[in-house]
Amino acid sequence: MELYKIDEKGLAEAMARVMEDYRVVAPVEKGPKHVFDDIEDWSDARPMAVGTVLPPKKYAFPQRETLLRFTLTGETPEAEAVMDDTPVVMAGVHPCDIAGLRCIDHTLAGRHFDEHYGARRMNAIVFGFDCMPDEHCFCTSVGTLKAESGYDLFFTPIQTGGFVIRIGTPRGRQLFEKYFQHAEGAGVYEESLEADFRQRKAEAVTAHIDAPVDDLPEVYQESMDSEVWDKWGAVCFSCGSCSLVCPTCYCFDVQDRVSLDGSEGRRDRIWDACTLPDFATVAGGHDFRPTAPKRLIHRHNRKFNYQQERYGEPHCTGCGRCGRSCLVHINMVTVANELIAEQKGEEA
Amino acid sequence: MKPKVAFFSFTSCEGCQLALLECENELLDILGAIDVVKFREAMSETSDEYDIAFIEGSISTPHDEEKIKKIRDTAKVIVEFGACAATGGLNAMRNSMGTEEDHYEELREKVYGPVGVEHFRSTKARPVHAVVPVELTIPGCPVDRGHLLEVIEAVLVGRSPRQFDHPLCVECKLNDTVCVVEAYGQMCMGPVTRAGCDSICPNVGDACEGCRGLLPSGNFAAHQQMLEEHGNSKEEIRLRYLMFNAYPCEELEVPLP
Ligand code: SF4
Ligand code: SF4
Ligand code: SF4
Ligand code: SF4
Ligand code: SF4
Fold first, then answer.
1. What is the ipTM for the molecules in this complex?
2. What is the pTM of this model?
3. Count of domains forming chain A
4. Which CATH topology does B4-157 take?
5. Does A65 share its domain with A146?
6. Which end of chain B has less neighbouring CB within 10 Å, N or C?
7. Which chain B residues are closer than 8 Å to A273 by Cβ?
8. Can you list the residues of chain A whose pLDDT is less than 50?
């Protein structure tokens, strides 16, 4: 594979030109944290910032979206689907969030194809960026240290300054040729200068799961009655934060709104979360997952058991967001390691 | 037939009625869909025939109690309108500052002087549902415009409105809001407070004070411990719980530090 290089100035110059033609979003500062937001000036972008509040998933699968609009004035109600296929360049998508998008694709753009998600997803251009992990990241444990695919362009910083660029798709190649190839400091590289950065990145990861990721489905299957769930369930707020910030969660609720004069309305889709107390309540008021431990079992098994067995990759990408946002310190690594230790203890 | 709607004020600042009048863009649509027959803040014409009664304010005097029972006899639907009506609101802070036996005499004297002792009688400040059954609740101090419009819409369409049986944290996440506990260690009531205001306070960097009321499913012990971990004293936490939720703490038997 051909590798290219660009320096900081050339990148800023190229991105300024991209911004003339596309909507560009990237991590920007918000208080002491970062969020993905629209940018008009590349100097506002923090493409390597770790732990944005929400993952870039929100551009393919927004927190709230209108699915269709309807009128009720005619003899029969009439509905029209609302589609959004405006291209958006997502700059600063890290390997964990690239994996997150792939996980959601399995469900929403696989055998079952959600038109609304699909339209946005296909027009979401991914400019991946490498990053430096914080204490919550554990990409090395779940195979997401490096993105092999799922990006149009991927940027890795190199010690001599600037970035190595990888091209991941034909669309990425077109964009590269149009905006980056002729920017200042751009050039071809024969060999990878990424290895050095990647190694420093791997060494910076401090949170590790104490078992190979392929063993996890079994660990979780054997742990359905573990006391670990009761222990954490006792302090869980059932606040939903962990699910809502997760790059692979896609639960939603559908709500109809009607104008006050009853003439028209719309159908909205809004994110929901399996960790919420009212999530599993069905018509008639029956709640089939009525306790916090049961809800935690469900969420954690979705990551390392059910989905992993079904699609062949863990549906936790090691991004660390759930651990950062959980105010009672429930996180994937601690829980996994407690379950693993418990089973090792039982075997011994 | 447009439903006839009446608004009644009990012990409150009447700020929630103002919140309705502030629905500028929708006010004409609302008035087109309902018939307002009693509304002190907005009009003078009154009538004693109505289908839906919006009750603002808490029930905190023997006279309030009689009045709300009469309203219950007339109204098909009673809507608790705002924190005072839904949870007792700020008014219920005084519930622990005296006794019902002497009608909070000491407190009344402090607030109104000798005239108050003579002329006013007080009971505990209670939400409407503590005195008569109610059909709908829009909590908040003041009520959130969006939630108010949703309830009006649901009533007109004839379905039950959204319940918001989940904590405020959900709305912080939907809004990509930086958590004020995670970022600044603030004393946020969000994890045990009913959502529905679109996390308006954390959105601007302020902790939630819990004006929409405690969630019955809240994990109060874990929440209080978490706040302590962030350097808040037991007394600070207790006062924060009692600020907007003195009555719900009693109602839900919430253990306080
Ligand atoms: S973020 Fe933590 S407290 Fe909230 S639901 Fe998830 S595990 Fe429970
Ligand atoms: S489970 Fe937690 S760490 Fe794993 S992908 Fe989701 S938010 Fe990230
Ligand atoms: S809930 Fe708040 S705004 Fe509404 S009437 Fe009571 S004190 Fe005023
Ligand atoms: S700011 Fe408060 S309500 Fe929002 S997520 Fe944090 S704790 Fe929850
Ligand atoms: S954030 Fe909390 S205090 Fe602020 S309006 Fe909402 S419920 Fe009330």
1. 0.94
2. 0.94
3. 2
4. Rossmann fold (3.40.50)
5. yes
6. N
7. 170
8. none
